Every structure is written in structure tokens, then in C-alpha cells.
Amino acid sequence: MQIKLLLIDDDADARDVVSATLMNRGFEVVCAKTGGEALDRLERERELIDVVMSDLNMPGMSGLELCRRVKHGWPDLPVILVTAFRSDQTAVTATQAGAYAVVSKPLRLPELLLTLTRALAQRTPESESATPQPAAARTRRVSSEFRS
């Protein structure tokens, strides 16, 4: 099963490049243009989303506000914020909002993949294993444990 990532960025070109790159690395990527669209998608597909990755600076709802809302509604869901304007204060503010990490643009694939792997391992009960399980696999396993 693939790890499913919800990618939020108002820049269509950036969304397309990151999405294609991660899909080539085995991720299933679903995209949203705005924070509101991302929250709607989470409401519909929460059991299927493993990790959220959002641009920090977007019109309307910022990535920081989106992170706060995601952590309020889905506290176990890791959120990674991406920004071209990273500072120590940005990292502190993002961490206080519940972000797992802040990754700088331009994205470097090895750093991004390591951050995603660590974020996924931290949230899964199998955090000791090297390969985090997708949400659908965890849900299915938990459901089968409660069958009578």
C-alpha cells in the first residue's frame, strides 16, 4: 500500500512538480489549492490521508492556520510546512502550531523524503519499524482486531 500525502499549495506549477516527484517515489498524492479545500478533503477522506504537506504562505488561509486547524481536528496527523522564507521564528511558530517540521524551498528530495519518513514513523504505532504503514493498512488492522 502507498503512503497517501495531502499536498496544499496555491502555486499550480509547484504543486505539479512536487506531486510528480513524490509519486515517482511511490507516494500517492492528492492536491488542494487552498486551506479550505484541504480541510474539506480531510473531512471526506481522513482515514486515507497519512501526512499533510502545505506551503506556508498562501492567500486566504495560511499554511500556519491550516496546520492549527488540522492539529485541532486530527491531532495524530503529521503536518509539514514548506516555505521559501524560513527563519528561526518561523520554525518556532510552526512548531507551536503543531507542525512536525518546516522544510525550506527549494526542496531537496533527500531532505524531504527523510522528513516524511520520520514524520510518518513518529505517528504510527509501528514507529520502531523502518517502513511506516499507510493509514488504510493501520485502519484495516485495527478494525480486524475488534471483530467478534
Summary keywords:
single chain, 16% strand, disordered C terminus, alpha/beta, 5 strands, 148 residues, Rossmann fold
CATH architecture: 3-Layer(aba) Sandwich
Q: List the strand order in the largest sheet.
A: 2-1-3-4-5
Q: Mind summarizing the main beta sheet?
A: 5 strands, parallel
Query: How large a portion of the residues is in β-strands, by DSSP E?
Result: 15-25%
The average pLDDT value, as a whole number, equals 85
Total E-strand runs: 5
Structural category is alpha/beta
CATH superfamily annotation? Response regulator
Q: Please give the count of helices.
A: 6
> How many structural domains?
1
Q: Could you list the spans in which at least 5 consecutive residues all have pLDDT below 50?
A: 126-133, 136-148
Helix content: 40-55%
Principal-axis shape equals globular
Distance between the first and last residues' Cα: 26 Å
C-alpha-based Rg, rounded: 15 Å
CATH topology: Rossmann fold
CATH C-level:
Alpha Beta
User: What's the helix-strand series?
Assistant: EHEHEHEHEHH
Q: What multimeric state do the chains show?
A: single chain
